[in-house]
Specification:
Layout lengths: L26 E2 L6 E4 L12 E6 L2 E5 L5 H15 L4 E5 L18 E5 H5 L7 H10 L5 H10 L14 E3 L2 E6 L2 E7 L9 E5 L2 E10 L10 H13 L4 E7 L4 H23 L4 H8 L13 H13 L8 H12 L2
Parallel strand pairs: 4-5, 5-6, 6-7, 11-12
Antiparallel strand pairs: 1-2, 2-3, 3-4, 8-9, 9-10, 10-11
Helix pairs in contact: 3-4, 4-9, 5-6, 6-7, 6-8, 7-8, 8-9
Bound molecules: zinc ion.
Amino acid sequence: MRLCSRPYGGRGWVGQNAPMNLPTQLTAVPGTDDLFLWAPEGTGLWGYANCLWVISGSEAAVIDTPYDGPMTEAMIAAARPRLGDRTVGTVVNTHANGDHTFGNYLFPGAEIIATRAADEHLDDEPTPQEMHALVRQSSADAPLGRYLREHFGVFDFASAQLTAPTLTFSEQHTFAVGDTEVELHEVGPAHHVGDLVVRIGDVVCTGDVFFHGDHPPHWAGPLQNVIDACELVLGFDPRVVIPGHGRPTDRAGLEEHLLYLRTVQREIRLRFEAGLSAEKAMDDLFREEFYPHLGRPERLMIVIAVEYSHLGGRVSTPTVLELAGQAAAWSYR
Ligand SMILES: [Zn+2]
């Protein structure tokens, strides 16, 4: 299933991480009259997340906000014809990563909902200003600096303002947008410490427990929690599954991804038990082709390092920057 309409107008992006196109209009989710998707196209990219709009009666909500101000403004402009004179009363953040939250500041007055865990770990996330400094000030000769420039240099972090949740919950929370009921289910720690998935009838937004078309970077883990989150979504018997990144799909698309996750989990455990270091496990995994149709293989370095820390019984997982540094180093070897 393809929910994105073509062609989208671009906005003069430069750099390796430039998307194919950005949506200039929202696309109705098939079979619904209140759900609309803003889904940047392209795989192998960092930072271009899917955002779902709920527009019902006189109210509107948006699930996740883009990575920087210009992209968020482009999304709001794309939504304007559907939005009419409504204002967005609720923003949901599926987790605290900036590519799902940095655009919050362009929804003044909105209730911003996230899990309590996501809110409590907000300090572990780089702020927009820290990302701006990291991308521009870290050494271009070091793998992490080079990687950040190549993959994150396209974003305008300087303009964004960190805007924290105004309402947090644990386990479950339900709210209404006009006549539409929106269920939030906490599933973290999985991709991130504070993940949630969103269920609206038979449509589910998974956040980043599901990347469609790329290898995922899972920062919190263990992988079993990511698998459990995907199982929970399948238990909802969804008709439409909207991943955090990549093309919307259906139940079968998520089932296929679950098989991949179980394979990754098994292959990591085998190498851990054989005494390989995380770096050696990564090299060994990619000695032969490993899901070559999926983009950004270096992200599995992050998944392996996090899984190794759980398998080794460590109390805390490596930091985001440590993990990103390992992935960058592997990608240039
Ligand atoms: Zn994301």
